[in-house]
Amino acid sequence: MRKASLRSAAMLLFVLVSGRPCPMAAQEIQISASVDKETVTLNDQIYLYVQISGNSNNIPEPEMPSLPNFSVYSSGRSQNFSMINGQVSASLQYNYVLVPRFVGRSEIGPIAVKVNGKVFQTAPMSITVLRPNAAAPPAPPGARPAPRPSGAPGSQGAAPGAAPAQGQHPPLFASAAVDKKKAYVNEQVTLTVRFHTSINLLGNPEYVPPDLSGFFSEDLPPVRTYRADIGGRPYLVMEVKTALFSSTPGAKTVSPATVRCQVQRPSDFDPFAADFFQQFFGGGAYAARTQEIKSDPVTLLIEPLPESGKPADFSGAVGKYGLAAALDKKELNVGDAVNLSLTVEGQGNLKTVFGPKLPELPAFRGFDTVHSLNLNKADDRVQGSKTFKTVMVARNSGLIEFPEIPFSYFDPEQKRYVSLRSAAMKVTVRPGAHPPGASVSAGSPAPSSITPGAEDIHFIKETPDSAALAAALASLAAPRRAHAAAAAVFFAANLSLAGWARWRNKNPVKLRARQAYAKASAGIDAAQRLWERERAAAPRLAPPVLPSSLSSAKGPALPGTRSSAQGAAEILAESLRGYLADKLNLPGHGLTWKEISSAVLKRNPRCPADRLRRLKEAWESLDGLRFAPPEDVPASADGRVEGSPMAAELKEILREMEKVIR
Amino acid sequence: MRHSRVLFLAAALALSVCGAGGGTSANDFKKAGEFYLASQFEQAIALYKTLLAASPHSAALHYNLGNSYFKSGSLGPATASYLRAYALAPLDADIGYNLDFCLKKVGETLYPPGVPKPLFLAFHALSLNAVAAAFWILSCGLLLSLSLYPWTTAGLRPHPALQALLGRLIVFFLLFDAAFGSWWWLRSSQEKGLGVVVRNGTEVRNGPGENFSVGFTVPEGRRVKVLETRADWAEIGVLKEGVRGWLLKDSIIVVND
Q1: What is the pLDDT of residues A532-565, one digit of tens each?
Q2: What pLDDT, on the 0 to 100 scale, is given for residue A632?
Q3: Residues of B with CB below 8 A from A514's CB?
Q4: What phi, psi does A372 have (nearest 5°)?
Q5: What is the percent of chain A where pLDDT is above 90?
Q6: Distance in angstroms (rounded) separating the CA atoms of residues A83 and A386
Q7: Among the partner residues A466, A482, A501, nearest to B155 by beta-carbon distance
Q8: How distant, in Å, are the alpha carbons of A317, A606, B5 from that of B173?
Q9: Cβ distance A16 to A40 under 8 Å?
Q10: How far apart are CA B17 and CA B105, in angstroms?
């Protein structure tokens, strides 16, 4: 912007022109020029407007033709950009002030613009310049009214701003002033540069704008010219205004603006000099020199925006704004598009205003937001509107509500943040033929396919789950120290017991002795099972009983009972012998009662005699039963005596011996 | 310890079969759902929180609370609730979908890019607690087998068949315990200290204090990992970008301590 301003104000020419609009159409670029009046007096001025529009985001500045009959001032430009589907459409208007220099008919030649090597130009226009006392004809219908410079009512208006005191006024000087010395970030500060001249200038003055680094700048057209009486001296004043917006806080300095002009050198023409003719024809009376005039630098203090009270949706807008939202239709079908327009309107640096954030609208699919900007600079304030348009395609049917849309800005006058909300809107979406997931231009998918709707989270669970398993797992997953200690104690104790048992079992004699009863008991049980099996197969077969002392029941032996009884008796005898051999550490074979009794008494001299006697009777009875003829084997009276009494008797004897033999 | 745990697990299973609901009041659960249906999300949130205080291991409650937060516009707390629900019930399709939906809103995804989805699902097939519980149960089995084994050789009656069986059991417990232990360790290292940013545009500084410069900002709903805490500040690492910095503790919700 600053660059454009520098270019647009590069030339200041005083010329007079009049004409009529002469638009010229082209393929992509359209350029037209118009003036506010075609006839003008010599002490008046006319406005020339050059409008360029087209599908390009880089429209160059128009090339002005040579206008020797006018002084030409650039009075800035205004622009309107819009971007639709990525295509930039721009409309630029360049404004010029033309001040006539000579009476008569003058022509404004074609104004050209060159885009991509192609030249587009306007038709020439004719302007009639009359003497000051001549009555100018009324402006043609449709011509624009000439804007009046503020603070300069006509050419006789008083010069605004500070002026050098009486006696300090050079014939040429420049001044720069701002409307405020302190401002907030992104708040408008109006810079006014004035060029004062009280002498006739030769040639066209050249205006070099100040360096505006660190600012967004906007020209504030038109350039005002008026006459002012300063310190008793009449001046012609040219005034250029620029709106500044600082992007960062801190002390800022606007460098001096510069005006270069050609002035007449003070005449040293002497009619009585000897070289009079040489001076006369050498141009001494018309000599010119270049003079450069600078304004003073201007210092500004830019304050940061306050942090307190800053809304969450604040995006940097400073000024005074309003917000409006609109839908272009209230009813539509699923798959149809509706345009949501959000317009931010007001005073401020609209170019840096971001669009309000749209809320979640699951029922719609939103496309890219495009914006268009409309600026005007009435009363030297940058203002206008910025419209953000979003194409929304309905996905679901129903009465859909567009919620309020927030927008916040900082008001530098009230020194506080202001939050706006657009009004909520409702739109009725009917079920339609269009698939809701289709894009506007992509066409329809196959009818048989599933058409996706609005993306959203899944619904809540309607039945509570059981958290018991998860709680149990959580408890198991986080073992406590007590648990770990218990496990360690268990593990250590078990290992210790196993080690102790292993140590004890290293002595085979002791092991035999410890296992003696278990082995004998197993043998007795086996004999018992044998009897029971025999009885089940042949109930008449009677198991043997111990003779005399071990059993009171005696009777004739029955045929067929001898083998079973003897087999069982043999098992019992082997069990008893094995027990005594293991327990007393004696050889198993060839064992005699004498050896047994002496070994028992040796192990336990205080062994009760009755126990030793019972053991002896059992020992002899079983031996006798093993080797006795079948008819001598005693049996019960009915031949059905159970074998268990004998086994039980023997077990009891062994249990008694366990206590005696240690 | 072994017996107490087995009994506790059996009791828990019995409770779950009976549908005891782990303390969740069915009426309050239903009432909270009605609040949700009526778009009274604040009331639904309050009631779900009350229910969760009594039954903190209910995936459904965490899930519904996440839904309520999401509908009320709180993306960060919603993501935190979904993460808690996902930790309890990783195979629940609704929980996985909603969590992924929220993560996508802040440029993340539940399924890490470059990792095959079946592999990710298998890795998360069991909850972290289930993996840990399996590890401890297997550890108990291993200890029991190891402590019984000497008795088969040193007991009163040597039993070769029992000895062989215990030998096989020891190998089984050893292998599976090592596998579940590794799984648990990997999962814990991933999920421990997991947090979610709950303030949009949270400033992450280069040190634990306001006097340190702002390194970057993170949006609400982003998953972060808490690396260290100091007073009111926590050092976090942003998982996706791999950057780290300090923020105020109240800017995040820690999902898994």
Answers
A1: 777 676 554 444 444 444 433 333 333 444 556 6
A2: 59
A3: 156
A4: -130, 145
A5: 7
A6: 12
A7: A501
A8: 68, 55, 18
A9: yes
A10: 38
- The predicted structure's pLDDT at residue B156: 53
Nearest-neighbour CA in chain A from B116: distance (Å): 24
> According to the model, what pLDDT value does residue A491 have?
82
Q: Is A475 on the interface with B (CB under 8 A)?
A: yes
Q: Which of B68, B135, B123 lies closest to B98 in space, CA to CA?
A: B68
Please give the order of strands across the beta sheet that includes A39-41: A39-41, A125-130, A104-108
Q: Which residues contact B189 (CB under 8 A, 6 or more apart)?
A: none
Rounded CA-CA distance A563/A547 in Å is: 17
Is-contact A45 A35, C-beta < 8 A? no
Distance CA B17, CA B9 (A): 12
Helices (H) and strands (E) in chain A, counts: 9, 28
Per-range mean pLDDT, top range of A53-62, A152-161, A373-382, A444-453: A373-382
Cβ A578 vs Cβ A657: under 8 Å: no
Cβ-Cβ contacts under 8 Å for B45 (sequence gap 6 or more):
B65, B68, B69, B72
Phi/psi class of residue B153: alpha, beta or left (left: φ > 0; alpha: ψ in -120 to 50)? alpha
Which of B64, B88, B20, B256 is CA-nearest to residue A468?
Answer: B20
Evaluate whether A8 touches A94 at the Cβ level (below 8 Å). Answer: yes
Euclidean distance between CA atoms B251 and A129, whole angstroms? 74
pLDDT digits (tens, 9 = 90+) for A131-151: 766 554 444 444 444 333 333
What is the CB neighbour count within 10 angstroms for residue A413?
Answer: 8
Who contacts A335 (Cβ-Cβ below 8 Å, separation ≥6)? A393, A394, A432, A433, A434, A435, A436, A438
Does the CA dihedral A505-A506-A509-A510 come out positive or negative?
A: negative
Spatial distance between the Cα atoms of A362 and A401, rounded to a whole number of angstroms? 11
- Do the beta carbons of residue B37 and residue B68 sit within 8 Å? no
**CA A108 to the chain's CA centroid:** 57
Which pair of structure tokens corresponds to residue A169? 């006024």
CATH class of segment(s) B10-106: mainly alpha
Taking the C-alpha atoms of residue A652 and residue A209, their distance in angstroms, rounded to an integer, is 130
Domain B194-256 falls in which CATH fold? SH3 type barrels. (2.30.30)
What part of B 19-48 touches A (C-beta under 8 Å)? 19-24, 26, 29-30, 33, 36
According to DSSP, residue A635 is labeled: B
The rounded distance, in Å, linking the Cα atoms of A166 and A233 is 9
Alpha-carbon dihedral of residues B102, B106, B107, B108, nearest 10 degrees? -50
Cβ contact A653:A596 at 8 Å? no
The answer to whether the Cβ–Cβ distance between B136 and A518 falls below 8 Å is no
Map residue B27 onto helix, strand or coil: helix
More confident residue, A18 or A111: A111
- Are the C-beta atoms of A228 and A237 separated by less than 8 Å? yes
Instruction: Tell me, letter by letter, the H, E, C secondary structure of A449-513.
Output: CCCCCCCCCCCCCCCCCCCHHHHHHHHHHCCCHHHHHHHHHHHHHHHHHHHHHHHHCCCHHHHHH
Q: SS3 for A323?
A: strand
Residues of A in contact with B143 (CB under 8 A): 487, 490-491
Contact with chain B for residue A66, Cβ under 8 A: no
Any idea where the domains of chain B sit in the sequence? 10-106, 128-191, 194-256
Paired tokens of A246: 């600082």
Q: Output the six-digit token pair for A655.
A: 């249990």
Q: Is the Cβ–Cβ distance between A92 and A34 less than 8 Å?
A: no
Q: Is A203 helix (H, G, I), strand (E, B) or coil?
A: strand
Dihedral sign for Cα atoms in the order B199, B204, B210, B214: negative
Nearest to A495 among B71, B132, B147 (CB): B147
Backbone angles phi, psi at B44, to 5 degrees: -65, -40
Tell me, rounded to whole angstroms, the distance of Cα A412 from its chain centroid: 31
Query: Collapsing DSSP states into helix, strand and coil, what is residue A636?
Result: coil
Upstream peptide bond of A464 is cis (omega within 30 degrees of 0): no
